[in-house]
Write a structure and sequence with these properties.
339 residues, mainly alpha, A middle domain of Talin 1, Four Helix Bundle (Hemerythrin (Met), subunit A), 2 domains, 12 helices, 63% helix, 0% strand
């Protein structure tokens, strides 16, 4: 599956001729433009295509519709390090990706909508009031891939529901991108009047984004399906129905990788260490050949999946022990903890 090329931040800076604060200002500005805005540009673009595909053909078997959904999911995972600011406003992140669904709320919410013929799907506006569990990429994945939703209720209602889900996803992605256009100023030029008073506050936010994204990939994307050796949980894998589990793990590493390199441009040794970590993880992913992580139930495959998780955990330790002190910050609060 073709994906957009994200601009690399591996830039050589003449640090001896530029003040440290000015160097960081330039790095943060480049990060905002080539990473944050660029990734949300693609999320907006891919979700517009998803809404268009659903409007033209709501058949769950439509290859165009399924590919559009996968593109959108990839774009969302690829922006995983930027779950702050406009991304979190009005529960937008959860409206796009309500996962993990530890209590099975999504199938319950969808089933209730369909069987009750709930009029909440009459318009895109009214659908924003639906349960978050019935909205977003994972709810739509169930509608397209889960046989349990092929025959319940009426075909007309299911079609409209799919179209509303797609339009709602696109609308949410558009709102995130539009608000980032304004919010970027807070990162580039911190001030007493904004959410970040100093450059240190900006670095702390970016570092927290990287560490939180990696923690989520290790604990949820890998840890949940791994379960225990005696009781693996392959059905807990993210997006397993569409076979996107492993691809989303790889996508989730994109922004943490680029961000980590950006934050160590003036430290060649640390930058090289982090490059090695990320490169090894990427190679391990490519060697797995296990799209839905069903291999957690096979001892040989499970060993390699456990090794991948350990590699990510080792990277997290390296970041905490080296990148954090380098920036003068610590991982701090995890925005994904919720209530």
């Amino acid at each position: 599956m073709l994906r957009p090329l994200i601009l690399s931040l591996c830039i050589v800076w003449p640090i001896t001729t530029v003040a440290q604060d000015d160097l960081w200002s330039d790095q943060i500005s480049i990060t905002v433009k080539t990473q944050i805005l660029h990734r949300f540009d693609y999320l907006e673009h891919s979700t517009k295509n998803l809404a268009k595909a659903a409007a033209q053909n709501c058949d769950p078997n439509s290859e165009v519709l399924r590919k559009s959904l996968k593109d959108g999911m990839w774009a969302w995972a690829s922006a995983s390090a930027f779950r702050f600011g406009p991304t979190e406003t009005d529960n937008r992140a959860f409206a796009l990706g309500f996962w993990p669904d530890t209590r099975g709320k999504t199938p319950k919410a969808l089933r209730k909508l369909i069987l009750d013929r709930d009029p909440i799907i009459e318009s895109t506006e009214s659908f924003t009031e639906a349960s978050i569990a019935a909205r977003g990429f994972y709810a739509m994945e169930l509608m397209l891939y889960d046989p349990a939703f092929r025959d319940i209720g009426s075909p007309e209602y299911r079609c409209t529901l799919i179209q509303r889900q797609a339009a709602d996803i696109a609308r949410t992605a558009n709102s995130i991108r539009e608000d980032w256009e304004h919010y970027k100023t807070y990162l580039i030029a911190p001030s007493e009047d904004g959410p970040y008073r100093t450059q240190a506050g900006v670095k702390r936010e970016l570092f927290k984004g990287v560490t939180t994204a990696l923690e989520f990939t290790s604990d949820a994307r890998l840890g949940r399906p791994l379960g225990s050796f005696d009781k693996p949980r392959p059905k807990r894998a993210e997006a397993r129905r569409s076979g996107m589990s492993l691809e989303l793990i790889e996508a989730s590493l994109n922004s943490p990788w680029d961000m980590s390199i950006m934050m160590t441009l003036e430290n060649e040794e640390l930058s090289g260490i982090l490059q090695q970590h990320f490169s090894k993880i990427k190679l391990s992913i490519k060697d797995l050949d296990d799209p839905d992580l069903s291999g957690v139930s096979d001892p040989a495959s499970r060993f390699r999946i456990e090794a991948l998780k350990q590699q990510i955990d080792n990277l997290r330790t390296t970041l905490a022990d080296n990148l954090g002190p380098h920036l003068g910050v610590s991982a701090g609060f995890n925005s994904l903890d919720g209530d």
